[in-house]
């Protein structure tokens, strides 16, 4: 086969551009796995092994935490914030925590509810996995939850698109688009093919399969809004469904956001040139890097918890037992009021107020509203473990 023949073959490896009746050219993806088959080079194979090991260490480190479910709270919210920021939201982790604690401020970003929805969509997807495999049906349910009552809620949440969408600069027309996904009447077929691939007996390594599936979903772009976020949620759900991770603690959107242009360029290069291997190399680097970072965070959580338990033991005397209860509560609810503490330890308001004051004194809690009434306190050092790599 000559060089030109190979280039033409590879350019159509992921699919082909097909002229539509109204004149534009939409991309029609080929079914997975790629044909010609993937060439897993020695370098990519090493990277794949390293990524698998790093994921294994992350999963093990989470399971060594005293109560893994408590600590998942912040990992999920970090992924939600970063994945939503890729799509242009301005809300930070602090904004999301404040919104969930029902703290309403004049400068609260209007898009914070989109991030809160992302958290709900992930939690619902994970819960549904107990009775429903990853499928078009599950993806549609997640999409409906993601867009419920927020920007994009008028764009048929949970329904596959019935009109043409496109990707390009804000406000661009179909003629100015960088990429035009498959026409609407083909979307259901391509999603069905993707579902079959996910549940096939393919001998491809699982991380390779997940990397392929994410890129394919983004190419199909089956919804009028929210495709990027649903596609990234799909990565987490697949890792948990296949028991690679017991808990959803891989915030891969950190890597995608930090290399946002490369992320988009790799996805487009697959469509134009069939460069699946280059995309997979990029993807594996992300899994490796973020797994290592998330593992370090788990270690820092454990160290912080032990440090603060010692501080409570050394400083709170007879109130230490209640101090431990509040501390454990903070890992799932890092913002509290005195009334929250009162209800948690079932005591009087003055006793709860005194306990909170003591936790502020020893550096566990920090008042951040600046109010004299309705004050709120944040477990600042814990939040900062996740905030430091947010931007």
UniProtKB/TrEMBL annotation:
Coiled-coil residue spans: none
Listed GO MF terms: ATP binding; nucleotidyltransferase activity
PROSITE patterns the UniProt entry points to: FIDO
UniProt xrefs under SUPFAM superfamilies: Fic-like
Residues the record lists as binding ATP: 225-232, 263-264
Domain Fido: 134-285
Keywords carried by this UniProt record: ATP-binding, Nucleotide-binding, Nucleotidyltransferase, Transferase
Catalytic site: 221
InterPro entries per UniProt: Fic/DOC_N, Fido, Fido-like_dom_sf, Fido_containing, SoFic-like
Full protein name: Protein adenylyltransferase SoFic (AMPylato r SoFic)
């Amino acid at each position: 086969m000559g060089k030109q023949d190979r280039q033409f073959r590879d350019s159509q490896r992921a699919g082909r551009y097909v002229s539509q009746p109204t004149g534009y050219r939409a991309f029609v993806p080929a079914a997975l796995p790629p044909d010609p088959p993937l060439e897993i080079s020695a370098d990519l194979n090493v990277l794949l092994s390293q990524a698998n090991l790093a994921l294994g260490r992350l999963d093990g480190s989470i399971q060594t935490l005293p109560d893994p479910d408590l600590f998942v709270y912040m990992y999920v919210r970090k992924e939600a914030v970063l994945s939503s920021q890729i799509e242009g939201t301005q809300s930070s982790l602090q904004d999301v925590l404040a919104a969930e604690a029902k703290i309403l401020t004049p400068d609260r970003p209007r898009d914070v509810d989109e991030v809160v929805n992302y958290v709900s969509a992930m939690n619902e997807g994970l819960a549904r996995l107990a009775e429903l495999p990853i499928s078009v049906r599950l993806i549609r349910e997640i999409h409906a939850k993601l867009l419920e009552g927020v920007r994009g809620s008028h764009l048929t949440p949970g329904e596959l698109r019935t009109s043409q969408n496109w990707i390009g600069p804000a406000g661009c027309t179909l003629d100015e688009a960088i990429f035009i996904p498959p026409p609407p009447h083909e979307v259901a077929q391509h999603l069905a093919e993707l579902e079959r691939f996910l549940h096939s007996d393919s001998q491809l390594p699982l991380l390779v399969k997940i990397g392929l599936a994410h890129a394919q979903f983004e190419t199909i772009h089956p919804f009028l809004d929210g495709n990027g976020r649903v596609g990234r949620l799909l990565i987490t759900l697949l890792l948990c469904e296949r028991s690679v991770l017991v808990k959803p603690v891989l915030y891969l959107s950190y890597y995608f956001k930090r290399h946002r242009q490369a992320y988009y360029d790799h996805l487009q290069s697959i469509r134009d040139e069939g460069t699946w291997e280059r995309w997979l190399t990029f993807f594996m680097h992300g899994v490796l890097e973020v797994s290592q970072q998330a593992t370090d965070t788990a270690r820092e959580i454990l160290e912080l918890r032990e440090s603060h338990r010692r501080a409570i033991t050394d400083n709170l005397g007879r109130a230490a037992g209640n101090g431990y209860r509040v501390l454990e509560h903070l890992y799932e609810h890092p913002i509290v009021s005195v009334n929250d503490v009162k209800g948690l330890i079932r005591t009087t308001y003055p006793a709860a107020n005194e306990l909170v004051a003591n936790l502020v004194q020893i550096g566990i809690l920090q008042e951040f509203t600046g109010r004299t009434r309705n004050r709120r306190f944040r477990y600042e050092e814990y939040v900062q473990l996740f905030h430091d790599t947010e931007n």
